[in-house]
Amino acid sequence: MPPPNEPVMHEMITSGSMAAASSPSFFTQEEARATEAVASRGGVNIDHDHQDENEALAAMEEGWLRLCLIGVSTLLVLCFLKLLSGKSKPQKRLPPGPWTLPVIGSLHHVIGGLPHRRMMEMSRRHGPLMHLMIGEIPTVVVSSAEAAALVMKTNDLAFASRPCSVTQGIVGLDGAGLVFGTYGDRWRQMRKICVVELMGPKQARRMDGIKTKEVEQLLQSLAVGGGATVNMSSKLAAISVDVVTRAVFGGTFKQQDEYLHELNQILKLLRGFTLADLFPSSRLMRWLSNGERDMRRTSGCIQRIIASVIDGRKAARAANQGAAGDEDLLDVLLRLQEEDSLAFPLTPEIIGVVIFDIFAAATDATASVLDWAMSELSRNPKVMAKAQSEVREVLGQDRGVITTTDLTELYYMRMVIKEVLRLHPPGPLLVPRETRENCEIMGYHIPKGTNVHVNVFAISRDPKYWDNPEEFKPERFEKKNIEYYGTHFEFTPFGAGRRQCPGMLFGASTVEIVLANLLYHFNWMLPNGIVPESLDMSEKFGITASRKCNIELIATPYPQSKAISI
C-alpha cells in the first residue's frame, strides 16, 4: 500500500489517529494565528503615522518572541517530564512483532495472502505471542498451546470480551448478540439461553430427527445421478443450510433465498479489511469506506426479513397453529419474549441477531468440515477404504439411513473427523477476543482493549505437538487420546473457555451423521482420471477457511444399501 497523500494525512491528523505526528504543524498554525491576531490588533490603531507603524512592528516582534519562548519552554518541560516518567515508570514490554509502517502499521505483513498462514509464518520468527498494529488496532496473535491456555483458561475472564469494530457493531447491535457480544450480564444471559434453551436436550432430540430427514433427501439426490459426477461442495453446503433452517424456522420460509443472500454478503464484509474498521478514529476513512454503508444496508435488510417472519409467527401462535410440543428455535425465543421474565428483554432486533449468529456460525462451518473430509478421504484412498470398512462392518448390511444412535462404535471415523478438524479448523483464527483489563502473559504486557487472535491453524500444525503435522493421518489419535472440547490446547478448533462455540456439539454431530451415511451408502471416486495426489487442496480467504475450488466426485450406490431407491 503506498503512503497516503497529504490530504489523507491531514485528515488522519485532525481526526486523532496520528496525534503524535501533529506537533510540528500545530506550532506552525499557532504562529500564523498569532501573527494575524497581532497584525489585526495593530491595524486597529494605525492612523498612517510612521510612529504607530513602528509600535505595531515592535508589538508584533514582541508577540513572536513570547510565542517562541512559550514553545521552547513547553518543549523543555515535556522533555523533562518524559525523562522523569521514563526513570520512575519504565515502559512495559509488549510482545515482539514485525517492523511497522506509518499509518498502516503491520497491515502490509498480513494482506496479500491468507492471514492465518501469514501469521503462522511470522510467529515462527517472532514467537508464540506476537504484536501487530492492524491499522490503528493493537493486536496480539497467539500461536502456541501454552499461550492459548493462558488466554482461554488461566486469564479467561480478562480475555472474555469481543472487540466491537464499526462493521461488527452494526450487525451485532453494538455487542448485544452472542458471537460478537460484549462480555457482561447481557451476554451471560444470551449464553444461558443458547446452552439451556436452544441447544438443550429437548432441542437436541428434535434436531436428530431433522438431520435424519435431511440426510435421507441428500442420499436420494445423490442416487438419482446414477454414477455421474456430483458437485459435492454444493450438496454439502445445501444440507448444512437446510438443517439449520429447519432447526430455526421449522422449515423453509418465503424470504429464505433473500435472507441467505444477504447473510453471505455480511460474511463477505466481515472477512475483509474495511477502512472503517482499520481506522475507526478517522472520519475521512469512514467516509471513504463502502464497508460501513454496505453493512448498514445489508444488516437493515436482514432485520426487515426477520421482523416479517416474526410477525407471521406471532400471528400463527396467537391462532394456536403451532404445535406446543414441537417448538423450533424461533418459537423458543418468542416464548421467552412473551414470558417477559428476562433481565434483558428479547426485542425483535435481538432475536434477529441471535438467528443471524446461529446461521453464520453453523452453516459455513459444517459445510466446510464436510467438504474437507471428503477431500482428504479422496486424496487418501487407503484412509477412505478403512473408514468405509469400519462403517459397513459395524453397522452391517441392508441398512437404511444411519442415525445418531448408530454412531457410538465408529471409532476410526471419529479419528478421521478429528484429523480433518486439526488440519482444517473451520475458523483458523478464532473469533477475536478483547482484553478487558491490562494483564501479563509470558512476561509481556497486554494492554486493555487489545484484539487477541488465537491462531488454531498454526497450533494444529506445529511439530512441537504433532509428528509430521502436514500429513493426514487419523491414526495419530489412537495414541494421542485428546478431544476438541477445549481442555487440550494444542487442539481447540471450537475454542475454549467462556467464549467457546456453544453450538460445538450440534455441529460435530451433524458432521458425524452426514459423513457416516456418505461412507456407508456410496463408493467414491475422483472424476476424469484425476489422481489423488493432484487434487487441489487450496483454501480461500474468509472467516471460514473453505476450499478454494469445489470438489467433484463420482458417487456409486452401495449394493447393500436400503436407504436409496434408484
UniProtKB/TrEMBL annotation:
Gene Ontology molecular-function annotations: heme binding; iron ion binding; monooxygenase activity; oxidoreductase activity, acting on paired donors, with incorporation or reduction of molecular oxygen
Keyword Membrane: yes
Residues annotated to bind heme: C501
Keyword Signal applies: no
UniProt cofactor(s): heme
Keywords: Heme, Iron, Membrane, Metal-binding, Monooxygenase, Oxidoreductase, Transmembrane, Transmembrane helix
PANTHER family membership: CYTOCHROME P450 71A9-LIKE ISOFORM X1, CYTOCHROME P450 FAMILY 71 PROTEIN
Family, similarity comment: Belongs to the cytochrome P450 family.
Protein name as catalogued: Cytochrome P450 71D7
Lineage, top ranks: Eukaryota, Viridiplantae, Streptophyta, Embryophyta, Tracheophyta
